[in-house]
Give the backbone structure.
Amino acid sequence: ESTKVKNVFPHFVDEGGWPAVVAEGSGRVHLTYFDDNKLMYAVKERSKKKWQFRTLGYCANARFIAMAMAPDRSLHIIYSDLFDNYYGYIGSLSLMHHGVLAATGEWRSKIIGSNYIGSHSLSLDISDSGELYLAWQEARGAASPGNFWFRKTLNGVWQEPQLIDEYGYDHIDLAVDNEENTHLSFYSLKYGFVYQKWTGDQPGPIELV
């Protein structure tokens, strides 16, 4: 059985790239994206036709972004940048940022990590208790080998990153269940396309998919 889309009605939102989206049950939609070294936020109610825009902050040479909504309806945004040595630096430098947009509108952001390669394929989820779970690849971008990493918060405080696989390639995805087990799927140059479940800080066996 096949389904065809009869009509497509495009609507202009804004200029930019690397979007992340969260939709609430009410139909309220939240977007974050990069536009000319700025981190942008847009929101629209289901019953409204126009988007509301806001500049959250400056983010030079932004690379990748992920967003999720916590039980208190605050939006958590993880985003990364990469400064190559042609910007005047001695070597490359990549920073990972964690921004929080509260339901009341307050915005705050801080740096939670750095490396000299880049942070690619960010995947973020939030548990029912409000803890954050993050996976990413340490790589410059798509179609690149690099370590896969896992990190989470405990009582709202980021814990140390844990290595998932040192043979990672390209993309990784993550989801957390209602018992706060972490489910990962990724491509490994050593194993192929795999699935892995983490219970707390303990990784389970790698399963070939």
